Amino acid sequence: MSLSRGDGFVHLADYRAPAWRVLHAGLVFELDPAATTVESVLSLEPDPARPGQPVTLDGEGLELLAIELDGRALGGDGYAYDGHQLTILDPGRACELRTRVRIHPDANTRLEGLYQSGRLLLTQCEAQGFRRITFMADRPDVMPRWRITLRAARDAFPVLLANGNPVSSRGLGDGRHEAVWENPHPTPAYLFAIAAGELGRVTKTLRTAEGREVELNVWAEPGDVERCRYALGAVDRSLRWDERRFGRGYDLDVFNVVAAQDFTMGAMENKGLNIFNARYILADEATATDADFLAIESVVAHEYLHNWSGNRVTLRDWFQLSLKEGLTVFRDTEFSSDLHSRALKRIEVVRLLRGRQFAEDAGALAHPVRPDRYKEISNFYTLTIYEKGAEIIRVLHTLVGEDTFRAGMDRYFADNDGKAATLEDFLAAHAAASGRDLAQFARWYAQAGTPELAIRADFDAASGDYTLTIDQHTPATPGQPEKQPLLIPLRFALYDADGGEITTPPEADAVVREGMAELTAARHVLRWRGLRGRPLPAFNHGFAAPVKLQVDYSVDELARLARLERDAFNRWDLLQRLATDALLGAAHAEAATQTLSDVLADLLEDTSADPAFVAECLALPDFDTLAEQVDEVDVEALVGRREELLDRLAEDQVERLQSRYEALADVAAGGLDGPEMSARALRNACLSWLTRLDPQAALAEAQFAAANTMTARLAALRCLLHFQAPGAEAALAAFQQQFRHDPLVTDKWIALVATRPHPEALADVEALMASNWWKATNPNRVRALLGSFARSNPLGFHRRDGAGYRLVATQVASLDAINPQVAARLLGAFESWRRWTAPHRGPAREALAALEGKLGSPDGRDLLERLLG
Ligand code: 0A1
Ligand code: ZN
């Protein structure tokens, strides 16, 4: 795709199929951190429909050593290379292009292409990193088959891994050795991977449902191998689950996973060779929290599941990104829901949506799930593409039901296997399987912004007529002033005075079935006739529609609902609503607080409820979720009110908190079974509430001293640090010392320091940046310190004097020269700046304006332009 309009954007409408295809890629790497040479032989074939086109290949900053076409060296008049693109005059026939280039992994701080992490050599190619390794049509609709030869010094690089199946290995006689890999599946360059170095592994062999024997390996630097066992189990569970739930098998003889300490994103689904940020692989109870274990399992599943949704069926172009990402998030979420608590998983996802994705969809960086233009594709790996994309798939699932959804998926995989697909292909498969017209549904992909449903209820006591008027509206977003109505499945229930459900279907101008209305227009009216009394309505069970609801409830109604709703998610949701009313100044704020306290009391006394669920109910809506619901964000006021409410609730519940804390001690002591993790979740929630009432933080100190899991230890340390307990410094010093050689655990205490809820946390962040703990080249460290500060420390980041903004903006400028993607993500913390109150808005604008002209990368410049635009 070229920037043909000269406006700096790549446009979806400009898509053209490639004039040349690459049928086969044979690569030989002479690996060396300082200077690696890559010899490449590409079999090229012209598209007969488009004769006369030159061969154009991407190649970013490559040192070209040799170039031959069909065995003949090309002279300067036979090709042109401008540092970005290699052009060869139309050879007029299928041909073979041989090139040799030199690259420098040890100087690659962007961590894109081939780079060094510790003593390992690794690749990251999505989205457009392959072109930094050698020449290629670096676009997902070009899918060669691959043969990859790796050569390196045996002592420094004893293990040599690449995509596909191992073919052969041999010594080369001079202290070097060679391994050959073959990937028989047509695979785009963004899924290319190699990993080389001193790696150890845990391994297991299994037989797939189709009878293929597969070796599963999880690799890490030798000292970390024992901490790979949990991830290996997660690979196994993912493989089995995809067989069962989607009928998808694994298609190579080996599946390799490698953990790397330096990795920009979470992990990468390269064909047969997933490469991971070590934080999503390495775990044992002494160094990883329960949340880490669950995150590891879900990221491992995500990458594994990409083997079908992304690799076997790949993308035609990057505009289709959510076709693999939204779908794979949907699939990994189902995996976690099937294996653990569905309600808890839903709560986790909805928190992320409401807290972060809704803000993205309402801020300066809002974009459709399928954008129609972009400047820098790296900036589109967003919550909208991933999480909203997954919600849209969930909407489809809700509309058609599991069986029809599965039939649509089978069809999608069958029709598109080995191909580069579009969202239209996906929708066509589901339309065929369900017999539905999905044209209006497709608007979910085209329109940015979170839809809002305003629901008004009217009851005529004389006639018993009850009407629900439902208005749908999606706010304007950058570049999209007008929106069309979406197809929204709205679940509803009506309860009568005795708490029974009214099952009579309403008269409606929408399709209504089994408690669900399919909203398609800007307004719908549902009408029930002759009811005996005013019913109590409930909506959007399970958050089946990713929308904002405006429904007026009295506190009594909310209290009744909180007791009526059987489903755990819905009960949690009602408590969130009560807390929001208490916090955001509803007329009945005090009554809402009291009701919330009463319901929490019942919950804390209910020993039959899952303790982890009770813990979720104790966790009030976070700052981001609240900020998203007000027109103008007054940071200090919002944080202050939230703290006050927590103090008040903690005082109300103190005895119950103490008794649950004590009673759960034994179960919480260790182990990774559900009840054990649940017990720790509730204990730690209780600990936090109790610590806010005790300036000495005695309980937290005791828990810190006695802890034998990282979950307990870290929760105690957080309480000590965040409530500024007298023992905080000593505990922090002990923790630092104990784990000083473990970068992942070090990131944990650094994040706690960076999120201390106090404006003075800024000084601590600055001190850490001046210390040996700071490593600007390590994305995890940058995220732990600056990412946590900017995203999760409202009082620090939003200091009135603007020092928080200045610190982050200044760091964005220097990180931009090191790793543009890390810098751009950090800059995203300003996405909502226009909604901050004036005393914050001014300094935020100044900090952003000061960045103009200081960002060298397209990533940073694109983001800054949109933030200020
Ligand atoms: N596809 C990977 C994540 C990923 C995305 C972008 C990257 O570079 C721009 C790297 C990795 C996943 O979804 O897990
Ligand atoms: Zn993904």
Automatic annotation (TrEMBL):
Residues 556-868 form the Peptidase M1 alanyl aminopeptidase C-terminal domain. Its cofactor is Zn(2+). SUPFAM superfamilies: Leukotriene A4 hydrolase N-terminal domain, Metalloproteases ('zincins'), catalytic domain. Residues 106-191 form the Aminopeptidase N-like N-terminal domain. GO terms for biological process: proteolysis. Keywords: Aminopeptidase, Hydrolase, Metal-binding, Metalloprotease, Protease, Zinc. Its EC number is 3.4.11.2. GO terms for molecular function: alanyl aminopeptidase activity; metallopeptidase activity; zinc ion binding. InterPro entries: Aminopeptidase_N-like_N (IPR045357), Aminopeptidase_N-like_N_sf (IPR042097), PepN_Ig-like_sf (IPR038438), Peptidase_M1 (IPR001930), Peptidase_M1_dom (IPR014782), Peptidase_M1_pepN (IPR012779), Peptidase_M1_pepN_C (IPR024601), Peptidase_M1_pepN_C_sf (IPR037144). Residues 230-443 form the Peptidase M1 membrane alanine aminopeptidase domain. Residues 449-551 form the Peptidase M1 alanyl aminopeptidase Ig-like fold domain. This is Aminopeptidase N. It comes from Arenimonas caeni.
